[in-house]
């Protein structure tokens, strides 16, 4: 027997049942609250103005400038890098550049949104950036990949035959998509939509936490710990009986820091021990790692809840991100994410003895509107791409870490292209549609 | 001892008076306290029981407004709050196959209830206090979601269980949880270790309460709220406990039952391990109401009904078979 769901507003109270003792308590509490508010407004006008500024910070995070200077994303309140900050965490989220907004829907240039009353509100569940600046959005709801040019304009879409695609990685040639839950299959395509591999994944010890592209193939990370290079040699080509072949896994020393998998990194976080990093040089033949650096970098004076990201910055350094620990009652839109850069030369000759403070940090609010996968993705050149959802659609904001210097050569063109597309209105993006990938394109 | 000793006995008169007085006192206090404070008592649970229940739902299909599933079998599953309320056993114990609609007085908690603390639970000061079996919940008035916390991984990143939505399956994943998710903890949590009570056993027979194993509390000394009984049978009748083991290694297996002369003198217990299944025979006419050791066995980490579980069978028994609780103790 199934019962009809009661109103989610107050499901525990039967219809017609009185609120126990509520009216007098509400009246008294309401009067006290009004009195307190009145006193606060009269006595502390500065506080009221400050609160107003905070509520508009999210608007500030979407600049309307169109000059496109790549370095204008530096937050004004960031501590200079030569000084050791007492609190390197800025109070306000860092400004970013709106690259594109994709409306919700199933059409071309749109991405899907599911918003159940009881369940996970979700949109695209992954975002990945190629070395040349092209962007792939994993439109999980519509079961497809939406490809964007470096300027954010949609360039095509590739349908996926996966029930729950959640992980995405790209390089200049390939797009990898993993369904780690329902189908447990890893698909390799090219940017034209041609499927090259479709392999059943071997059983893994724990949950998948990452998928990365390298020139040797995709890497899968388990529980932010073990990393495996997926070998498709045994998987065969798509088509016929070979389609459901099994992929072989080869253990790698850590997350790849470059597309060539010549460097890798591994991190741990514990509230008492903090962040621990180990950087490895990778033997390409054996995939064995030689540890070349061990660090305990400090991202913030504020407490960290957990790490979120660990990527190369395109210049030999590392970009590290974490979620800040929040206390009960903290506002939902307060900065929640901190991202910092560890330059290649930080750590010194005896790196194990140095615990560098990452001064070049940015902070971001997260996007509670819908689950959009990881709260940001780091491009091969070190730029940070943040998906943000609201009623209008799925927007991508781009941030450049302070002190990151010139982007890597491979990303210069992409950065310029993005600069020209700042604040691209949806109408403009829609007008840019038409160029499609070689595979099936949904109307 | 009669053949019906598992049927509940009448309460003594002083118990009735005490319960009546308690109800009056509760009613009076209820006028002054919040609705949450007036909630009925809920059974004590371990975090491992909550996780074992969530694990058994993996692979079932999200079904809006429902909370029942057949453990480890796929098919229809719960929605997000249905997963939460059944794993938490709130406001009452629901057996795996039991749907809330079986009881007209059932209060169906939703994400709104969890988020707004309308029930026997409370908000944690921060996510740093999260423990196995806690819930991370969001509700903004129009949409809400409930997830069950397992642990942090090497990055401290949360591993959770969730029923995500129509067309998707109940899953155990690592994913980002935005600032809207509030950490809450169920009342009456026990740190007893890897203890699984009888409601967290998959049992044979039907989709009713407890399958074809009858609930009873007539003989004292049971673990939790009650135990389950099956008469001797030549057919198939078993109950199986499967925990999610935190690490591989040697575990001592202990079992509980309530003893009586009408019980079996030789129920078969099968310990399923990665290296094979081992049979043990227990005499439930003696050694009741205590943890009875069945020996030490090597297990792998994780959740595996086939190679990380304990099964009690009523097939071929010579009396009532009692399924009460099982404990895995790492050694």
Main attributes?
heterodimer; A: 443 residues; mainly beta; Neuraminidase; 4-stranded antiparallel β-sheet; disordered C terminus; B: 331 residues; alpha+beta; Jelly Rolls; 6-stranded antiparallel β-sheet; 5-stranded antiparallel β-sheet; 22 strands
CATH superfamily of the largest domain in chain B: endopeptidase domain like (from Nostoc punctiforme)
Q: Structural class of the secondary elements of chain A?
A: mainly beta
| Largest interface, chains and sizes | A-B, 67 and 70 residues
Termini of chain A, distance in Å?
Answer: 42 Å
Distance between the termini of chain B: 39 Å
How many strand units of chain A?
24
Helix content of chain A: 10-25%
Radius of gyration of chain A: 24 Å
Largest sheet of chain A: 4 strands, antiparallel
Question: Low-confidence parts of chain A, pLDDT < 50 over ≥5 residues?
Answer: 1-91, 405-443
Instruction: For the largest sheet of chain A, list the strands in their spatial order.
Output: 1-24-23-22
Domain count of chain A? 1
What is the average of the pLDDT values of chain A? 73
Q: Give the ordered list of helices and strands of chain A.
A: HHHEEEEEEEEEEEEEEEEEEEEEEEEHH
Give the proportion of residues in helices of chain B.
10-25%
């Amino acid at each position: 027997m199934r019962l009809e769901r009661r109103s989610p507003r107050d499901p525990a109270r039967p219809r017609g049942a009185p609120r126990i003792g509520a009216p007098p308590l509400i009246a008294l509490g309401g009067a006290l609250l009004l009195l307190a508010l009145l006193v606060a407004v009269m006595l502390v006008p500065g506080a009221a103005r400050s609160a107003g500024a905070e509520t508009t910070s999210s608007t500030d995070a979407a600049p309307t400038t169109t000059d496109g200077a790549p370095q204008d994303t530096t937050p004004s309140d960031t501590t200079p890098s030569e000084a050791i900050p007492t609190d390197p965490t800025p109070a306000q989220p860092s400004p970013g550049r709106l690259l594109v907004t994709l409306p919700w829907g199933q059409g071309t240039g749109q991405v899907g949104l599911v918003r159940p009353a009881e369940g996970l509100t979700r949109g695209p569940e992954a975002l990945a950036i190629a070395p040349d600046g092209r962007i792939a959005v994993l439109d999980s709801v519509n079961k497809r990949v939406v490809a964007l040019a470096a300027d954010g304009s949609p360039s095509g879409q590739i349908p996926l035959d996966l029930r729950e695609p959640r992980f995405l990685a790209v390089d200049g040639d390939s797009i990898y998509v993993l369904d780690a839950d329902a189908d447990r299959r890893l698909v390799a395509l090219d940017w034209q939509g041609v499927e090259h591999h479709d392999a059943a994944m071997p059983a893994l010890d724990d949950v998948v936490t990452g998928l990365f592209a390298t020139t040797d193939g995709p890497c899968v990370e388990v529980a932010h710990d073990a990393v495996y290079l997926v070998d498709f040699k045994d998987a065969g080509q798509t088509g016929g009986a070979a389609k459901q072949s099994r992929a072989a896994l080869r253990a790698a020393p850590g997350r790849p820091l470059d597309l060539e998998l010549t460097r890798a990194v591994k991190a741990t976080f514990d509230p008492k021990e903090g962040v621990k990093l180990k950087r490895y040089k990778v033997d390409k033949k054996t995939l064995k790692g030689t540890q070349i650096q061990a660090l305990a970098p400090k991202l913030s004076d504020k407490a960290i809840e957990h790490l979120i990201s660990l990527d190369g910055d395109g210049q030999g350094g590392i970009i590290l991100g974490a979620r800040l620990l929040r206390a009960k009652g903290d506002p939902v839109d307060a900065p929640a994410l901190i991202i910092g850069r560890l330059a290649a030369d930080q750590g010194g000759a005896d790196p194990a003895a140095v615990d560098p403070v990452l001064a070049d940090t940015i902070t971001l609010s997260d996007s509670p509107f819908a689950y959009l996968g990881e709260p940001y993705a780091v491009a091969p050149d070190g730029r940070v791409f943040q998906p943000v959802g609201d009623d209008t659609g799925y927007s991508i904001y781009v941030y450049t870490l302070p002190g990151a210097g010139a982007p890597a050569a491979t990303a210069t063109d992409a950065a310029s292209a993005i600069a020209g597309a700042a604040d691209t209105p949806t109408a403009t993006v829609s007008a840019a549609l038409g160029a499609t990938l070689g595979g099936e394109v949904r109307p | 001892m009669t053949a019906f000793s598992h049927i509940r006995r009448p309460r003594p008169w002083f118990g009735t008076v005490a319960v009546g007085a308690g109800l009056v006192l509760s009613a009076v206090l209820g006028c002054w306290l919040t609705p949450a404070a007036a909630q009925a008592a809920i059974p004590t649970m371990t975090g491992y029981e909550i996780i074992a229940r969530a694990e058994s739902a993996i692979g079932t299909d999200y079904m809006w407004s429902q909370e029942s599933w057949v453990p480890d079998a796929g098919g229809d599953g719960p929605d997000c709050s249905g997963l939460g309320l059944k794993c938490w056993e709130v406001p009452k114990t629901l057996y795996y196959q039991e749907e809330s609609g079986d009881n007209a007085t059932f209060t169906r908690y939703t994400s709104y209830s969890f988020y707004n603390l309308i029930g026997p639970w409370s908000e944690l000061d921060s996510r740093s206090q999260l423990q196995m079996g806690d819930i991370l919940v969001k509700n903004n008035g129009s949409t809400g979601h409930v997830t069950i916390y397992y642990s942090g991984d090497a990055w401290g990143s949360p591993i959770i269980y969730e029923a995500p939505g129509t067309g998707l399956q109940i899953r155990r994943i690592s994913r980002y949880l935005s600032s809207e998710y509030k950490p809450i903890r169920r009342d009456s949590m026990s740190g007893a270790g890897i203890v699984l009570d009888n409601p967290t056993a998959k049992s044979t027979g039907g989709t009713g309460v407890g399958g074809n194993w009858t609930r009873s509390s007539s003989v004292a000394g049971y673990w939790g709220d009650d135990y389950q009984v099956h008469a001797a049978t030549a057919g198939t009748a078993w109950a199986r406990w499967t925990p999610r083991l935190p690490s591989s290694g040697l575990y001592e297996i202990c079992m509980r039952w309530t003893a009586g002369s009408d019980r079996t003198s030789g129920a078969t217990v099968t310990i399923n391990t990665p290296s094979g299944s081992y049979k043990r025979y227990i005499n439930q006419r003696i050694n009741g109401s205590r943890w009875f050791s069945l020996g030490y066995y090597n297990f792998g980490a994780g959740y595996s009904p086939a190679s990380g579980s304990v099964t009690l069978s009523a097939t071929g028994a010579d009396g009532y078979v009692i399924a009460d609780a099982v404990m895995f103790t790492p050694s």
